[in-house]
Design a protein that fits this description.
By secondary structure, the chain is of the alpha/beta class. It has a single domain, classed as Rossmann fold. Helix content is about 40%, strand content about 15%. Strands 3-2-1-4-5-6-7 form a seven-stranded parallel beta sheet, sandwiched between helices. The chain starts with a strand and ends in an 8-residue tail after the last strand.
């Protein structure tokens, strides 16, 4: 049994990953910005026999992240999954129409947020056996991606890519494995029905890849298929 911390667990991929890891017998610490609204997640926790607990954490707020870390201060974390994300809508992040407040919000949540979480929970990760840090990113951050992008979302994901590769280089001798993960284009509330993958299927694939991550994957950007994503 491994201890798993997942941010952004109330819906979409995060919610499905909670179920995957719990069904595999792991202990899951599921975090969400608003636990009081996370009825589906709380139902999973209530029926898990104690394998899943729900914790309040807003990755965009330093005090909230520190408070959650203080709550879990003695818990070893084998796998930390930075999953929390936001999407302001394509119409507000085009060259012709940019909502700069939303851009700052997305950067705060999806670039600075994972950095905050790693800072706060690194002692827990170092105390674990798995010592894995996995951050969800997106294909739109890749220079090889040649389709229309939402500029603020893509910029935030590109930023977190660089932050995590920087941390991977800094921690290359510390015994922790840091990877990035493109989980595929998933039919969540963010992407809508036009996307490719159903959340349970994507989560099952991502779960398999995460379980199989080894120190040889340190600093890599992986796909839900297990392949390496082009930068």
């Amino acid at each position: 049994m491994a201890n798993i911390l997942i941010t952004g667990s109330a819906r979409g991929l995060g919610y499905e990953l909670v179920k995957c890891f719990a069904d595999a017998g792991d202990r899951v610490y599921a975090t969400t910005r608003n636990p009081e609204r996370a009825d589906k997640l709380k139902a999973v926790a209530d029926s898990s026999g104690g394998r899943v607990t729900v914790h309040k954490m807003d990755v965009g707020d330093t005090a909230s992240v520190k408070a959650c870390a203080a709550e879990l201060k003695d818990v070893p974390i084998d796998v930390l999954i930075n999953n929390a994300g936001v999407w302001g809508g394509l119409e507000t992040q085009t060259f012709q129409n940019m909502d700069y407040d939303n851009w700052a919000f997305e950067m705060n949540v999806m670039a600075m947020g994972p950095f905050r979480v790693v800072q706060a929970f690194l002692p827990n990760v170092m105390a674990g056996q798995g010592r894995k840090i996995v951050t969800m990113t997106s294909q739109v951050a890749s220079h090889a991606y040649d389709h229309v992008i939402g500029y603020s979302y893509a910029a935030a994901k590109a930023a977190v890519n660089r932050l995590m590769t920087g941390l991977a280089n800094e921690m290359k001798d510390d015994g922790v494995t840091i990877t990035l993960m493109h989980p595929g284009w998933i039919r969540t509330e963010m992407a809508g029905p036009v996307a490719d993958l159903d959340p349970p299927d994507a989560a099952a694939d991502v779960h398999k890849v995460i379980v199989g991550i080894t120190p040889a994957d340190h600093g890599k950007w992986l796909k839900w298929t297990g392949d390496v994503h082009p930068w």
